[in-house]
Amino acid sequence: MPTFSHCTLSRFLVENEQPPLHACHDLDALILDVALICKSIAKTLALGVLADAAGSGGAVNIHGEVQKSLDVVSNDLFVHGTQGSGHLAGLASEEMQHPYQVPDVYPRGKYLLVFDPLDGSSNVDVNVSVGSIFSVLRAPQDVVATGRDVREEDFLQSGREQVAAGYALYGPVTMLVLTLGHGVYGFTLDPGLGDFVLTHPMLRVPADTQEFAINSANARFWEPPVTRYIEECVAGSSGPRQKDFNMRWVASMVAEAHRILMRGGVFLYPQGTKESGRAGRLRLLYEANPIGLVVEQAGGRAIAGVLPTLDVQPTALHQRVGLMFGSRDEIERLARYHTEQPCHH
Ligand code: F6P
After folding, report:
1. Quick check: helix, strand or coil at residue 87?
2. Could you report how far apart the first and last alpha carbons of the chain are, in Å?
3. How high is the pLDDT of residue 59?
4. Atom of ligand 1 nearest to the CA of 254
5. Is ligand 1 within 6 A of the CB of residue 123?
6. Cβ of 119 less than 6 Å from ligand 1
7. Is 251 close to ligand 1, i.e. is its CB under 6 Å away?
8. CA gap 332, 245 in Å, rounded
9. Is the peptide bond before 117 cis (omega within 30 degrees of 0)?
10. Which residue, judged by its Cα, is nearest atom 15 of ligand 1?
11. In this structure, are residues 326 and 204 in contact, taking their beta carbons and an 8 Å threshold?
């Protein structure tokens, strides 16, 4: 059984290797590349070097150069930091309409990397926490065998197929939260060492909670089960739940997911009613699935309506989905409300 005192991310990966070891080495190397990229993004954000560029992609700087938004800068860091490693067959991200082909000059590998390089980026302007989210999938056999270009359909794998997933949170400290499918581990960036150090082994989402997060400005679009759940929370100790709730909304999903991992809670960005035509806001492949795997691996739940998020079969690279995740008991209650008859108060 490995001991984790003063355990860096690289040591953790080595100590957690499971047969076949050669497969582990490739995945470890990919995770370390991602960790390095997240350190670069953290540094970029912290230095404020590009503060003027935040949210102002397309503006011209004092040198007459067109500035890139931090989303694009972060996306470039992901692409350039992984494409030459030999571990990836292709990449896809929120910032790129189509899958990215690893250029021919580099060897192609057996994994696909799907990511949201800077989630909640509108929060950069107001100095509130943001994050990066990533998901690792296996490339289809024929891609690995022939080295052919990747296609959109290669990425359309359900969340259960993820080999690894996690996020970096750029807050007062930078953290990396990771699952390789056997529990969830949180690492904190030690600025002195310049390394991620294991600080939160085997994270567990508390099963119960009295805290919810939802953008209630969308209340008129909610479906009845969500309205019922929120109304009951708001009714507090004088309603059917017989306890008071608290509400939070950071508008930065990684920050909300992290809060929920630390102390429990639920996050809801549900799909709207059919009439509203709102399919949900968050993207299945690089937001809902990686966060869903992390939350499930920590003993929480993640659903899209009645279905576990990880069981949704993707149909498009940038597909949106209604997403609700967090403490097990509350999410199971929400799932139950979705299957029960509409409740008439
Ligand atoms: O990318 C989506 C996102 O920025 C999430 O990080 C966040 O939870 C959500 O959008 C906020 O949405 P809204 O602006 O509707 O509150």
Report:
1. coil
2. 54
3. 59
4. 6
5. no
6. yes
7. yes
8. 17
9. no
10. 215
11. no
Q: Is the CB of 252 under 6 A from ligand 1?
A: yes
Structural contact between residues 186 and 205, judged by C-beta atoms closer than 8 angstroms: no
pLDDT in tens, 212-222: 999 999 999 99
- Summarize pLDDT for 256-301 with one digit per residue, the tens: 999 999 999 999 999 998 888 888 999 999 999 999 999 999 999 9
Contact assessment for residue 211 and residue 268, using Cβ atoms and an 8 Å cutoff: no
Which residue has its alpha carbon closest to ligand 1 atom 8? 253
List beta partners, residue 195. Answer: 190
Note the Cα 109 to chain centre separation in Å: 23
Query: Is the pTM of the predicted complex or chain greater than 0.85?
Result: yes
Distance (Å) of CA 61 to CA 50, 77, 115, 118, 123: 10, 20, 28, 22, 21
CA 174 to centroid of ligand 1, rounded, Å: 20
Ligand 1 atom nearest the C-alpha of 256 is 8
Instruction: Give residue 251 CA to ligand 1 midpoint distance, Å.
Output: 5
Q: Give the span between the Cα atoms of 90 and 192, in whole angstroms.
A: 34
Enter the tokens of residue 88: 């990836």
How deeply is 7 buried, as exposed, middle or buried, from its count of CB atoms within 10 A (0-12, 13-18, 19+)? Answer: buried
Give per-residue pLDDT as tens, 41-52.
Answer: 999 998 775 455
